[in-house]
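Q: How would the C-alpha cells look for this protein?
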Amino acid sequence: INAEYGVVTHTGSCGLCSTAQDLAIYLIEDFTSAGKVCATKGLINEKRGLECYMQIGLTYECAKIWNYDGIYDGQVCTSTCISHLTEPNNGPPPACELNECLQCDEDKAGPIFSAYGGRTRRRSGLLSEIVRPCSSIAHITHDPSEC
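A: Here is the predicted structure in C-alpha cell form.
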C-alpha cells in the first residue's frame, strides 16, 4: 500500500517494531521457535534475553519489547504454558485452535505487545508457524522495489 509520503508496511499504529530493519527481520524470521529460546533466556536473565533478540537482528527497542513480552508471558502464563510447551501450536483443522499456552499469550500479552510494538506479523501481512484466521492477517504485499 503506497501512501503519499512512504510505503505502509503494517496496519495499526506505529510502535517500537515499526522500523524497516525490524520488517526485514520479520520477513526472514518467524520468531515462534527463536522467540521461545529468547523468552526462556529472558526469564532467567533479562540482559541475556535482550541480547538473544538483538542477535536475531531486531533493533534495540523492538528487542526490548519482545523481551518484556516474553518475561510477562512467563509471569502470567507459566502455569498454563508449563504443560503445553511441547504441544503443536494449533489443534486440528478446520478450527486450528491455539494451544492453551499460545491462547494465554494472545489474551494477556498480545494486546500490550500490539500497543507498544506496533508491528506484528499479522499486522504486516505475514504468515507464521501459528495458524491464524485469514481475516486477522492484513493484506499487505512487501515489494522491495518500492522502498
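The beta strands are 2-3, 6-7.

Residues 1 and 8 are 5 Å apart (CA to CA).

Upvote if useful.
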